[in-house]
Amino acid sequence: MRLRPQPGPLGMEPFLRKRLTFLSFFWDKIWPAGESEEDIPRIQGQDDNPVPEQPAAVEPCSFPAPRARLFRALYDFTARCAEELSVSRGDRLYALKEEGEYIFAQRLSGPPSTGLVPVTYLAKATPETPSDQPWYFNGISRTQAQQLLLSPANAPGAFLIRPSESSIGGYSLSVRAQAKVCHYRICMAPSGGLYLQEGRLFPSLDALLAYYKTNWKLIQNPLLQPCVPQMPLAQDEWERPRSEFVLRRKLGEGFFGEVWEGLWLGSTPVAVKVIKSADMKLADLTKEIEALKSLRHERLIRLHAICSLGEPVYIVTELMGKGNLQVYLGSPEGKALSLPHLLGFACQVAEGMSYLEERRVVHRDLAARNVLVGDDLTCKVADFGLARLLKDDVYSPSSGSKIPVKWTAPEAANYRVFSQKSDVWSFGILLYEVFTYGQCPYEGMTNHETLQQISRGYRLPRPAVCPAEVYMLMVECWKGSPEERPTFATLREKLNAINRRLHLGLT
C-alpha cells in the first residue's frame, strides 16, 4: 500500500504532519521550520580536559524506538516516483514504518535518504557490529584517541568512535578540530536507541554518523574521514597524561615558558617545563621531542616524560636541587665556592656540549641559566634544541630583548646562522659567567651597543679569579670567524688538563 498525500486548502505539509506524526523526523528534514544558523541547537560538553564527555539536552523530536527493524537490500531497486527510495544490493536500511507491500525506510549506508521500498526487495538483517567499520577503534583510551587523531596521517575532520571509558557499554565520538580533539559521549536510551542529543535517536552508530556528517554544525566540527590508524597502535612510553603531574612551586620563567617543581604520581619530584604554545612552532615539536628522547648523557638533563597532546605542552625532566647555575652562582652559597669548584663546572658543561657536538645537535641558547646544578654540585645542560622551536618573531633581533644577544655569536644574532661554532661562542660567555659568579656579560650595555662593540673588536675582560689560560680559551671562543673557534672536544680536553694541573698544585 502506498502513502498518497491528499492535498487540501492547507497544502501537503500540514496534512502529512497531522496524519503521520511518527514521521516528524522526516518532515523536519524536507520542510525545515525556518531556523537560522544561530537557532541550531549545539552539543555542549565538548572539551579538551580529561573529564567524561557530556551529551546535550535539546528539544525532543519524534523518532520511533528501534526494535528489530534492520533490513538489507537483496536487489537493486530504482525509485519510480518521488515517494520511493532507490537502493542498491547490500544497502542497509532501518524500517520507520511497515505498510503492507512497502516499507518506509531510512537508508543507513551511503548518503542518508528516506522513502518507500518494496518489501520483496528486502530481507531482515542483524545489527552490524561496530568492529566491522573503519571508524570504530576498540580497546583504545581517550589519550590514545587524541594521539592517533593528532598524528601527521590525520587531518582536521578525521574522526573515530571508541568504547566510553566513563560509561560501561557506551561509546564516545572523537573528532579532530585543527590542533585539538573534541570528544562527545554517545548515550543509549532506555529503548535501545543511540543519541548525542536527547530526542535525536538513532538505531545504530552508522545511522548516527550519517546524520551528523550532514548536520555537522550541530557539533561544530565536520566529520570528513575515518581516522587513519597507526601501525602498530601503541602508546609512546614517554607520553603521559597531565593528570599524573601536580605543579607545586614555580621555579622560574624563560624564553620557553614556565618551569615548575612538581610531583609525578604523587611521589617522584620532577621539573616541569610548561611550554607557551603561542610562542612555539608546535608543528615541529614532535620532531624535536624525538631528538630529546635519543640524547642520553650524564651531563645532559634527563627527560622523564612528555605531555604533548593538546595544550599546554609539558616537558618533564629530573629535578636538580640547586636550580640553574646563574642563580646559584649569585647566591651566598655559590659566592663562597673556590676556584676548583668553578673550574669543575666549566669542565662538566664542556663535557655535555662535546656530546651534543658528536651528535650534531646545536643548542642555540647555551648560557648559565640553562645549566642546572644538583645537590652534589653536578652540572647538567638543559633546554638543548628547544630554541629552534621558537617562532621567528619571538626569537629574533627585531624583537629586542627576546633574543639573548649578549650570549649569541654575531653571525647568529645578525643573520640567524646557528651552528656548533655559534654554541662555542656562547660557551665562552658562559665561562665568563662562571668566573664572575653569575655576573651579566656586557653589563651596562644595550643589545645594540653590545653588537656594535663586538663588531669593532671589543671582547669581555678577564674576570679577577679566572686563570689566564682559561681566559685564553674564552678569547678563542670569541674569534670573529666561526671556523677559527675551537671544537667542544678540544675545549673539554684543555679544560680537563687545566683542572688536573690545578689539583696537582693544590696537593
Summarize the structure.
One of its GO terms (biological process) is positive regulation of TORC1 signaling. The protein is an alpha+beta fold.
Write a concise keyword list for the protein shown above.
507 residues; alpha+beta; SHC Adaptor Protein; Phosphorylase Kinase, domain 1; Transferase(Phosphotransferase), domain 1; 3 domains; 5-stranded antiparallel beta sheet; 5-stranded mixed beta sheet; 13 helices; 20% strand; disordered N terminus; SH2; protein tyrosine kinase activity
What does this structure look like?
With 507 residues, this protein is α+β, with helices and mostly antiparallel strands. The chain folds into three domains: 42-223, SH2 domain (SHC Adaptor Protein, 2-Layer Sandwich), CATH 3.30.505; 242-318, Phosphorylase Kinase, domain 1, CATH 3.30.200; 325-506, Transferase(Phosphotransferase) domain 1 (Transferase(Phosphotransferase), domain 1, Orthogonal Bundle), CATH 1.10.510. Helices cover 27% and strands 20% of the residues. Strands 5-4-3-2-6 form a five-stranded antiparallel β-sheet, with no helix packed on it. A five-stranded mixed β-sheet has the order 10-9-8-7-12, with helices on one face. A five-stranded antiparallel β-sheet has the order 13-14-15-17-16, with helices on one face. Strand 3 (92-99) and strand 4 form a beta hairpin. Helix 8 runs antiparallel to helix 10 (420-435), helix 8 (339-358) packs antiparallel against helix 13 and helix 10 (420-435) runs antiparallel to helix 12. Mean pLDDT is 79; it is low at 1-11, 32-52, 54-68, 231-235 and 391-401.
